[in-house]
């Protein structure tokens, strides 16, 4: 299936401000990029680099005034697969690949080493078989017990905050799932990008957990994990996968996001 994603950031800027951006899709796994565009208006020089997680990033200094950043991609993607059978098993720490070890450690927003987080994880999984069943139980618990609501969390909200307050958005849902899974020594990372199955189209965040011998997708915002996804980037938590990181004062006036499934017979669009 071909899928299109587009996001438009509009900023009002008072002084020249350096930024780091992560707005181009990853080129790996189940997605193949065949068209993309990236534009900053007014036009400024930018450079590109690959970060420590393999994400494609850009750097620029944005000028004073109104600045519009537009990124759009068209990608061949596979639909998120149904639950695997048999369920993939927990991987003992001594058998994990080196590049997965980073994702069992606590991070800024995912305090998996806190006793409150570990206690909650044990309450959720109880006597379930270690591995996929535990992650799916955690995903389901977060979906059923956390209210999705805009405007009640911010860039400082952590997994522990969400466990206590029980209200947030996809970023917060993902942080809590990650923290709970890592407290059980299951490597878990945050992935961001586009999803076609959202009631309100926006940039989205979900979870990938390393089980068996690969990474599996889990989405706690959905009643069950499904849909087509374009992956922009992944990392330990939101600190690693911010679409735009600013080093100075910038006022975000608007963020417009579109997704579209492209088929030979026509297209099914969702806009926001």
From TrEMBL:
Q: What is the lineage of its organism?
A: Bacteria, Pseudomonadati, Bacteroidota, Cytophagia, Cytophagales
Q: Which organism is it from?
A: Salmonirosea aquatica
Q: Which PANTHER family match?
A: BLL5557 PROTEIN, BLR5614 PROTEIN-RELATED
UniProt-listed InterPro entries: Papain-like_cys_pep_sf (IPR038765), Transglutaminase-like (IPR002931)
According to the entry, every stretch annotated as the Transglutaminase-like domain falls at 162-222
Know the name of this protein?
Transglutaminase family protein
What the entry lists under SMART domains is as follows: TGc
